[in-house]
Structures
1.
Amino acid sequence: MRIGELSRRTGVPTRMLRYYEEQGLLEVARAANGYRVYAATDVMRVRQIRGLLDAGLTTEIIRRILPFLDKPHHIHLHPQCLTPELARLLQAEADRITARIDCLARNRDALLAYLEAVRRFA
């Protein structure tokens, strides 16, 4: 399939798909005319990339772990993936996400308290 079709199937703009390719997140074959050609499995791959980005992971981390994620919720561990450097990187990212979750929870609680006060006085 071509880039427009992949964009329609995933909801990811073509510009973002090109960015994924530039970042090494998505491997793309080229037709004789130079057009990008995507496999049906790329639909799942793009959705996976989108989910990891939405979770707050950086493209650097995604590029490093993506080859070891063969299905959603399944990690295929490979010795190349199991390095102290990657473990530090993942721990730092997990810590950053935890801090963000804590901040979001505080904001949610403040909003709900405010909403409750507004409803009492309305």
2.
Amino acid sequence: MSKCSFFKVVCLISACSTATFAADIILNEYNAVGSTDFLNGGNAAVDEDGGRASDSYFGRIQGNGGDWFELVVIKDHLDIRAWKFDIYNNGALDRTLNLTNHSIWSDLRSGTIITVAEDVPGDVSYDPAAGDWWINVQARTGADGLYIDAANFTVTSSNWQLRIRDSAGKVIFGPAGEGISQVDGVSNTEVFRLESDPNAAITPSSRDYDDGKDFSTFGSPNRWGGMQNVRQLRPAIGGSASIIVSFPKGWELLAAGTIQTIRWETKGIVKDALVEFSIDNGNTWVEVYPPNVGSTGKYDWLVPLVDAEHCLVRVSGRNSLHVYDVSDQLFSIHICGLLGDITGDCVVDMTDFALLASYWLESSGPF
């Protein structure tokens, strides 16, 4: 074969390959937990590793929220009216769900998260200008059918896959899921998720897809050892509100019983900030006491008297809970009783020695 002919063949293959096109919308996560199982096994009280693996929306419940999958919009101002979701089980086409021509689908902003669920009522309050970037639609027999087919569908741990087609039937993304990516062996106590920032370069065979049993995030950016940055997709929209937690960001070691200043930055109008903390990796949240008032960007927090390794802080709009941010990584709280720990950071180091020397020299008898 001549070089010219070979080049033409390569070009033809590239033109026919969906992998060469930037993705307009991608699969982000799906729930493979069986209806009688819990995330990471175990029971309602504890998972098989002695922890409390859970979903950020549902908490720790049997079935982990039922049949659901999650998408992220990559292309700005995307129109997905009359698009189709082909659902595969064991590699065979099981169901096609059709989106309607409703206007909610006509102008999606990049960074939008879409969930399709069988058991969760629809929520189409979608308003990016107000900080609401999430759409949930319910697909099941008996649902209203305003946004998607009123038809049951299943999500399983048996090579479940999703293909997305446009209104003309052209494949936009997929099939994607177990058996397509590098992941194999997704069990009925796990989820399948993208463990990287969503972007146009993600393909169905991406190595960034993985199974997970520690955490799932229905309707929110994925979490694993890290957390997705979806903000990088979201355009600046006049009047939109956002919150960014700047302390604690993660990895800090805080001394129990000390005063630490939680700090956050806001964009747009956030009149009243709700400040909460978790000591179990976000499974449960407790509001700080006394409650925060207003949104000054800081709150002097009396750190609770606990020893905990998996702590997070969350700041959200008290009257707009969809506007929120969480510490980027886990931080620790420890009850400290070290002699010589002047700074109260649970470590005796040169800073404590310098403070001791300073206090000593300031005393009435430095010699």
3.
Amino acid sequence: MRSSAKAVVLFSGGLDSILTVKLLQDQGISTIALHCTTPFVGNPSDRFKDSLIKTYGIEEAIIKDLSLQFLPLLNHPKHGFGSQLNPCIDCKILFLRIAKEIMEEKEASFIATGEVLGQRPFSQRREAMELIEREAGVEGILVRPLSAKLLKPTIPETKGLVKREELLDIQGRSRKRQLELAKRYGLKEIPSPAGGCLLTDPSYSERLRRLLPFLNKLSPSDAIELLGVLRMGRLFMIDPEHLLIVARNDSEAKGLKALQRGTILTCNTSTGLMIGEPEPKSLNRAAKILARYTRGVEGPIQVKYEVNRTSEEILEVTPMPPEKVEEFLVR
């Protein structure tokens, strides 16, 4: 029997969020999937959006790019960072505030997430979960079906919109019960439990931490565009005002060339992108570093460069010595 209730599900695409949708659908509750993206997490593609409706029987899928709202959290998250540069508590508060807006806009009955009590040591402790509810303004209207029986009854439960007895009491890091549920629901593909946020990766976080002073000098739109390519290539802090990214393969070179801002440098087999206002000294240093990664060429090398995709110019440089290149490398 179909319920009159409708839920906005904060949908990451991981197994827990899929199971949350299934548990609500078992009760006849309509589901709207809200998938939030930042430069570090999420899939913004229309193909992914369409697949949610087709694969999981979701009534509607909404993708929200929260990059601009998320950017300040990299510097001063109110509730601090997790094990790396991940402001998980502040991030979840942001996502839930957006979910509440969608709930009101779509006239839904409540919000649901796939959170599991005790699964993540920073953001899914009981105290943290209660804090997140309060600061997001969703106390009483946030249902966590996988752990609901271990938490306080919510308004949708007390009103009978959601049958509490059909919700679960999962806690901790083990995925055994989730995998059993996945089998019961006939899920053919089991997503990774990791959540996929780049900010939980130690090497990426360390790289980003070193670059934050530089990123903070850029406009928000430029910073967001740059964050999207920080996984690419080798990074070099030429000076406090200029960053060079050197592609390691053809795929990375193509990605760098697709960006609309910055100075593209090319020489034979190498491609680089310099961020920052081009000036003779910085351009010369960038060209020398790029030349170091050009294969099969001896002596002076011609490096072509284009500033913001305008006219092409040429610099002739000698490759920088390897030991000098190391001084500028961001590891």
